[in-house]
């Protein structure tokens, strides 16, 4: 993932119901694409990797 660039999932539809993610190197940020200035959630890399692994496993 390129650092400091907001990305939208390739699986997001065109309905605007998606989140954006960016890698800052020290943290992974997540925000609502419909309200990008409303705030972000930040995760350390270990927590983010655990979250992604769980999603891929269907949890």
Automatic annotation (TrEMBL):
Residues 5-56 form the DUF397 domain. It comes from the Bacteria. This is DUF397 domain-containing protein. The lineage of its organism: Bacteria, Bacillati, Actinomycetota, Actinomycetes, Micromonosporales.
């Amino acid at each position: 993932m390129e650092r400091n660039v907001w990305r939208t999932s390739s699986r997001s539809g065109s309905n605007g119901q998606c989140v954006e993610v960016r890698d800052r190197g020290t943290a992974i940020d997540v925000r609502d694409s419909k309200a990008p200035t409303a705030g972000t959630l930040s995760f350390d890399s270990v927590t983010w990797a655990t979250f992604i692994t769980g999603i891929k496993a269907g949890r």
